[in-house]
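for the writeup, i need someone to sanity check this before i put it in the appendix. the sequnce is what the collaborator sent (i think, or maybe the updated version? ugh). structure was predicted straight from it, no edits. if anything looks off just tell me and ill rerun, i have time this weekend
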Amino acid sequence: MSDQTGSNGASGHFAVSLGDFRTELAFEVDAGRILVLFGPSGAGKTTALRTIAGLVRPDAGRIDIAGRTVYEDGNGAGARPVWVEPHRRGVGYVTQQNHLFPHLTVSQNIAYGLRDRRGDPARQRVAELLERLRLDGLADRRVWQLSGGQQQRAALARALAPRPDLLLLDEPFAALDMELRRELGSELRATVRQFDVPVILVTHSREEALALGDEVQIIDGGVTVASGPPLTALEQPGRGRVARLVGVENLLEMRVTARLPQDGTMVCAAAERQLETPLADGCAVGDTVTVGIRASDIILATGPLPESSARNTWAGVVSAVTLRPPGYEVTLDCDGVPLRCHITGTSMEAMGIGPGLPLWAIFKASSCFLLSE
């Protein structure tokens, strides 16, 4: 491990087979930044983390951490095989289960990975992390005396204590409630910046990926199907497969009926409904397209707005209301076209929304995006 936490980043590419399932990944993350591996359960995300940590041996590839090669298959010209054992890779690893030692106190858990656990440097490091991760006053408590959030803070502190060159986080906040996840996520970002450590975070939560990631790789079936900044990769994905993976709520099969170059838009229709979308090159009148619309980009109203810059206004009737923390998902039946919208509990109560209520869905042309397969 380095004297200066995260003085370099990590990168690599590898292929690893577990039974009939194969994971292939190329990755790069700089110090002080968070790379998110996003995807459904069984996509290969945890296998990728375990491979980088050295807990699974890949079939081929190379992995570098802080400028040091920790794995090399030796197949390249002039290359020799390299295998650095997990405990020598300078990697901190935190999972959802946290794996704290119940017979040790908080401070003893944090100090566990330090060479001299009882020396002054160790005590100073533990005190620093107790303060940084808001564990002041809990140093002498046992694990069972901590809340779920405090346990995850202690696990993160233990992983950071030896000043790792890379921090791996496998859905560390998945068992916590939404409010606590947001709080700990904010603390994680601040901690990563302060200690300048590169982080690879596994999650299947889109909200978590958007809030924490500097870069996102969407994993499915063991391979990366899309990557980029969170807002690009997750909010307006360019492919239908990716849109379904990241949970775009409205995917509408429509037909292009007009192109409006002067406005930078085009008109698409489905059944009796039409909407404006951004103008797309390569789309001609008569072409069939898939239009994606985020439920959170739709405004619900009890009537059409008298003056609005939004180009799309659809009337419909509420067919279903479903709890979707932190709010609700309202489905409108718009002449046979279902449109899913998000709304807060306060707004839903104030508007008296329930099945059978007529409502208007209002959204901008820029909220619509076209998908390719």
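The first helix runs from residue 45 to 53. The CA atoms of residues 163 and 216 lie 24 Å apart.
thx in advance!!
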